[in-house]
Amino acid sequence: MGASGKRPFSIWSVGRPINLGTTGDKPLSHNGDNSHNVQGHAAAGPALTQLRDDPVLGRGDDAGDATRRKAAWRQVVLSRARRARHELLCAWAASPPRRDLDRWGEEAAELILKAKDSALHAVSFWSWLEGCYQEQAWLSLHEAEAQIIEVLPLEELRARADGLLGKAKHALGGDDPRIWYVKSLLREDATASELRPRLAHLARATYDALDDQYAQSRGYRNRLIRLTVTALAGIVLCLVAGTMSTLDFGLTDHVGGWRTVMLILLFGSIGALVTAIPPLAKANGARNPFSLPLFQLLLKLTMGPLFAVVGLLILQDKLSGRFHTPPNLRGLLIWATLFGAMQQSVTRFIDQRVTRILG
Which of 36, 44, 313, 321 has the maximal Cβ count within 10 Å? Predict the structure, then answer.
C-alpha cells in the first residue's frame, strides 16, 4: 500500500500513463511525457529520468556491457543497483502529488548510476589492487539505499526496518543504542517524520561498518599478494643457486644442479598442497569479492618449496643428530614433500585470520 492508502504503483508510472485502479484518479503523466506536471505532480529530474530509461538497469542489456564483464562482484553490484532503482521509482510513484522538491530522488539516482558505471568500468592492475571501482560501486550503492529510506512512505519504512535491524545487529552488535532506539520507535508507532531520519542514520552506520570490513578484506588480500611475491623471489634465488651448482644436497647417485632443485621445489609444493586442503575446505562460504581463499592457497604453494629447501639444507648440515640427508634422489624428494607440508605450521595463523574476515 502507498502512503495514500491506494494500491501500490508500478515503477513505470514515472513518465508513463498508469491506472491506479480507483475512480477519479488520473495518471501521473500524459502520453509518456514527464516534463509537465499533472495534478501538481512535479516532473522527474534528469537523473531520475536517466535511471528509468537506463538500458542496463531497466530495459535490457542491449549493449551487452553487463554480461561481457563476468566478474562476480560486478554482477552483484548490477543486481543491487536494479533493486535500488526499483525501490526509488516505486517511492516516486507512491509519493503524494504537488511535490515542490526540484531535486527529489536526484542524488539517489545519480549514486545508482555511478555504481552501475563503476561495475562496468575496465580496470588496470593498479586500480584492481587498490579496489578503486569496487569501493566506488559499493559506497555509492550504500549511500543511495540510505537516501531511498529518506523518501519512502511510512508503510515501506516499517517493512524496510525489519531487514535493516537484522543487518545492523550483525554489523554493529545487538547492544548498539541506535538499534534499540529504532526498535522503540517501531513499538511506539512513530510517525514517518520521526522514524525516517533515525532509520537512515542507522543504515549509514551499518553500511559504514560493512564498508570497513570490505576495506579490511581488500587490504589483507594485498598483504597475501606481497607475501606470495616475496616467496616467489625466494624460489627464484633457489633456482639461481642450483644453476650455479652450489646446491647438490649431497646426492651420490644423481648430479646436482637446477634440475634437482626444481624437483625439490615441485615436491615441496605438493606437500604444501596436501596440508592446504583441510583449511581451505573449512573456509566460510560467504561472498568475498577479493577471493581470499585463492590467494591463501597461492601463498601456501609458494611457502612449501622454501620450507623444502631449508629443511633439506638443515638435514645436509646435520644440525639434527637423529636425521640425515638420504643418499638417493627418491629419499630426498620424500623429505622435500614432508618439509613442504610443514608450511602449515606458519600459515595456520593466516588461515585463522582469513576465517575471521570471511566470518
Answer: 44
Contact 326, 171 (CB under 8 A): no
The residue behind cell 545487529 is: 169
- Report the sign of the C-alpha dihedral through residues 166, 168, 171, 175, in that order: negative
Cα distance between residue 171 and residue 213, in whole Å: 9
Side-chain half-sphere exposure of 39, counting CA atoms within 13 A: 10
Backbone angles phi, psi at 33, to 5 degrees: -110, 115
Write down the residue that cell numbers 645436509 correspond to. 316
Query: Taking the complete model, does pTM exceed 0.85, yes or no?
Result: no
**Residue with the three cell numbers 585463492:** 294
DSSP labels for 49-63? HHHHT-TTTTS--TT
> pLDDT tens, 30-89?
333 343 443 445 567 888 888 888 888 876 655 555 556 667 788 889 989 999 999 998
Contact present, 15 and 29 (Cβ < 8 Å):
yes
Are 113 and 51 within 8 A, CB to CB? Answer: yes
- Interatomic CA distance for residues 240 and 103, integer angstroms: 66
Phi and psi dihedrals of 67, rounded to 5? Answer: -95, -20
Q: Which residues contact 79 (CB under 8 A, 6 or more apart)?
A: none
For the chain, the domains span 1-146, 218-358
CB atoms under 10 Å from CB of 328, counted, come to: 12
**What is the C-alpha to C-alpha distance for residues 11 and 86, in angstroms, rounded to an integer?**
6
Alpha carbons 297 and 7: distance in angstroms, whole number: 54
Quote the CA–CA distance of 57 and 120 in Å, as a whole number. 12
CB 332 within 8 A of CB 248: no
